[in-house]
């Protein structure tokens, strides 16, 4: 693979370019699926791992820590493989083939990242169940807008926004805590 | 532990930097003395971080979209699901070749099917024996040396290769030709991997037409999923065997399905309808309508 092509992939990940991500999925995911399925995993596991692999690369790019010494796809595959091995090693599954992938220096916080991604998916799913008004108020607050700005934007009083904000927070938190997935994630943490 | 509304208001003010320095100090002292409160604040902070529109979360959003497009075959996410039709049409000659190979007595399933079944065998959570499609007499899943009566019959009644489109027989199917695209879905067990189906009561594979009277159609099943399905919108789509109907995703009719929650993570479907159909081959698909994900595919024949 040419450097230009590898740089194009890295830039695409850094820029969250959907077209480039799509191309990466097409070219690299099948191998990861095959690998994970051969090593006691499911298609969903493979998709999770692949997503996490791209996020690992994204973080490394952002920290200026990524130096490719091999092709992009080989690197991504190695990252995914490593994440999967760590995951199943923790689960205590013995049947996996532990082969040599130590040549790639990748940070160790995969489990935490994986759990974070699952929490992200769960929180988003629950967030979408809130009323439209709650979603708007919380989104603005989470994106750093002050109560005054939200009040101006929505045409409410500041006090109303304050009340609305914590009430919506409570609804969201209750839904999250009621979901069985949340308890699995807390236990896994 | 449940916290009062006031405390949530306090947490909110703390996270939004709306407390005075004294209030902030007091709140932090309270957190250091109360582990549950500290955990709650950490959770609220995490929710806030993960729901903010940061570049990392936006990347997650795109990756989630791409993940959703990946199906059991590991197919490319570039195509919306119903554009598979075009791709599948390209596979028709290959499938046809497997079915109708001249002079070939032994019919083996295509490699893609073997690989898929092997991978399913490795996955303890989804045994092939549990597949709802298993009980359908599908040529693609036949044992090597069995003479597939259905195949021979189809061969006789089908002088043209299936790559040539059938003349549209009208709004309702009136022949029994297999729809290769849907057969492909059935034979490759393309189904949801996050829902476990059991106790399936479905129409018999062969139904007898009773003249002009409508046919009672019933489909019931138990669904188990770690995902909360209460808000899901499932539809049952009925298709004739016409290739273009499925390729363009134009079902003859669609019904909303009610999912009843039986216990935590367990749901039931019990759908009944009277259908006015002429003899022919019909397929029914159960789809999560919002995300366009097919969870179940099956078929039945209606004979005179």
- Average of the residue pLDDT scores of chain A: 84
Record field, number of beta strands of chain A: 0
Which structural class fits the helix and strand makeup of chain B?
alpha+beta
- For the record, the count of structural domains of chain B works out to 2
Task: Point out poorly predicted stretches of chain A.
Answer: 93-105
Described by strand count, sense and barrel closure, the largest sheet of chain A is:
none
Total beta-strand segments of chain B? 9
Q: Could you spell the SSE succession of chain B in H and E letters?
A: HHHHHHHHEEEEHEEEEE
Structure explained in plain terms:
The complex is a heterodimer of chains A (189) and B (304). By secondary structure, chain A is mainly α. Chain A has two domains: 3-107, Orthogonal Bundle (Rna Polymerase Sigma Factor, Chain: A); 113-188, Arc Repressor Mutant, subunit A (Orthogonal Bundle). Chain A has nine helices and no strands. Chain A has helices spanning 3-14, 18-38, 43-62, 72-91, 110-127, 132-142, 147-154, 158-178, 180-188. In chain A, helix 2 (18-38) crosses helix 3 (43-62), helix 5 packs antiparallel against helix 9 and helix 7 (147-154) packs across helix 8. Chain B folds into two domains: 5-67; 81-303, Immunoglobulin-like. Chain B has helices at 5-15, 21-33, 35-51, 55-68, 84-100, 111-122, 149-156, 180-187, 243-247; strands spanning 195-201, 206-208, 215-225, 234-240, 253-257, 259-263, 266-275, 280-288, 293-303. In chain B, the strands form two sheets. Chain B has a five-stranded mixed β-sheet. At the A-B interface, helix 2, helix 3, helix 5, helix 6 and helix 8 of A face helix 1, helix 3 and helix 4 of B.
